[in-house]
C-alpha cells in the first residue's frame, strides 16, 4: 500500500498524519515540541521521529514525508542539519523528509491553489507570498524587537503602554487598564504605581507581553482604548498581507494564528480590510503537510485528506 506522512512540528507539540493515495487517514502520531529554535536539536529531531513512527505503526515505509516546521532557518546550520539527518537515518524512514515552513503547510491546509498569500499572527506576525506552494518572499516577521506589528506581542505591549499612560498622565481607568492592573497585581492608588507595572512587565522575557493580548480582545467591545488598539492592529496586519502580494493579484489569502481567529476582534477587522479578496482560514497545518506529501508522491491530482475528528 502506498502511503505518505505529513508532520506539523510546532513549539509545544508535534503531530504526524499518514495518508493513503485516496486521502484516507491510516494513522496518527504525537510527540513533544520540535521547533529547533526553542528545543535542543536532538530533542526536536527525536520528537519528529517519534511522531512519524507512531503514525506509521504497522504500515511500513512511506513514499514521501513532508515536515512543516516552525524554525526551519535553524536547519541552515550544518551541525543542526546533521543532527536531523542522523535522526532520519536511525528511524529508518526509507525516504528523506522534505522540510518546509509551517506557513507553507498552513496555506496548503486551507486551499489547493498553488499561489497566494499567507498571513500569520500569533505571538509574532509575518506575511508570505506563496508560489507553487512554496513561500518565495516575506513581509514582516522581524521578531518582537524589530517588528511583529499587530501580533499578540504587539497587542500586549500596547495594552501595558496604554495603562502606563493613564497612570502617568491621568485619565479614566477603563476596562482595559483595570484588567492589566489586576493581571499584574498593581494597585493604581499606590505611590508610583507605574514603577510597579514597569517592573512587573520586565520581570519576564519580553515576548511574554503577549499574555496581555487577550485582555485587549476581551475589553474591545466596551473600552475605546482597547478598540483603538484592535483597529490599529488590524490596519497593520492588513497592510502586511497586501505588502506580500503583487499589484492586482487575485489569489487567496490564508489567515493563520490566534490573533486572526474568526471570533477575534482583530480577525474580524482584518477580514473586513481584505473583503475584496478570497480570504480563507487555516484550521490544521498537519493536513496541509500530509497533502503536500501526497502531491510529492502521487502528483497534482492527489485528493485532499479526508478530515477526521
Automatic annotation (TrEMBL):
Keywords assigned by UniProt, alphabetized: Kinase, Transferase
A Pfam family reported for this protein in Swiss-Prot or TrEMBL: BcrAD_BadFG
Entry GO MF terms: kinase activity
Ranges of residues in domain ATPase BadF/BadG/BcrA/BcrD type: 5-293
SUPFAM superfamilies named in the record: Actin-like ATPase domain
Record-given protein name: N-acetylglucosamine kinase
Provenance organism: Prauserella cavernicola
Top-level taxonomy: Bacteria, Bacillati, Actinomycetota, Actinomycetes, Pseudonocardiales
Amino acid at each position: 500500500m502506498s502511503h505518505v506522512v505529513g508532520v506539523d512540528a510546532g513549539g509545544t507539540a508535534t503531530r504526524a498524519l499518514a495518508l493513503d493515495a485516496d486521502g484516507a487517514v491510516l494513522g496518527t502520531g504525537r510527540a513533544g515540541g520540535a521547533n529547533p529554535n526553542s528545543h535542543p536539536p536532538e530533542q526536536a529531531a527525536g520528537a519528529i521521529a517519534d511522531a512519524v513512527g507512531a503514525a506509521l505503526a504497522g504500515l511500513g515505509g512511506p513514499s514521501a514525508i513532508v515536515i512543516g516546521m516552525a524554525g526551519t532557518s535553524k536547519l541552515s546550520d550544518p551541525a543542526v542539519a546533521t543532527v536531523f539527518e542522523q535522526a532520519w537515518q536511525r528511524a529508518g524512514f526509507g525516504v528523506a523528509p522534505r522540510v518546509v515552513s509551517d506557513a507553507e503547510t498552513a496555506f496548503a491546509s486551507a486551499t489547493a491553489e498553488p499561489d497566494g498569500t499567507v498571513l500569520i499572527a500569533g505571538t509574532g506576525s509575518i506575511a508570505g507570498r506563496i508560489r507553487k506552494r512554496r513561500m518565495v518572499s516575506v513581509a514582516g516577521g522581524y521578531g518582537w524587537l524589530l517588528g511583529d506589528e499587530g501580533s499578540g506581542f504587539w497587542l500586549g505591549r500596547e495594552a501595558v503602554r496604554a495603562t502606563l499612560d493613564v497612570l502617568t498622565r491621568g485619565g479614566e481607568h477603563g476596562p482595559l487598564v483595570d484588567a492589566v492592573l489586576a493581571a499584574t497585581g498593581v494597585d493604581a492608588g499606590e505611590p508610583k504605581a507605574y514603577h510597579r507595572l514597569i517592573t512587573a512587565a520586565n520581570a519576564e522575557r519580553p515576548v511574554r507581553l503577549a499574555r496581555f493580548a487577550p485582555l485587549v480582545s476581551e475589553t474591545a467591545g466596551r473600552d475605546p482604548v482597547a478598540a483603538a488598539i484592535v483597529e490599529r492592529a488590524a490596519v497593520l496586519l492588513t497592510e502586511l498581507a497586501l505588502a506580500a502580494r503583487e499589484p492586482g493579484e487575485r489569489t487567496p489569502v490564508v489567515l493563520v494564528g490566534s490573533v486572526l481567529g474568526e471570533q477575534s476582534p482583530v480577525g474580524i477587522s482584518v477580514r473586513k480590510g481584505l473583503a475584496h479578496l478570497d480570504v480563507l482560514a487555516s484550521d490544521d497545518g498537519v493536513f496541509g503537510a500530509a497533502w503536500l506529501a501526497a502531491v510529492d508522491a502521487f502528483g497534482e491530482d492527489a485528493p485532499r485528506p479526508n478530515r477526521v475528528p
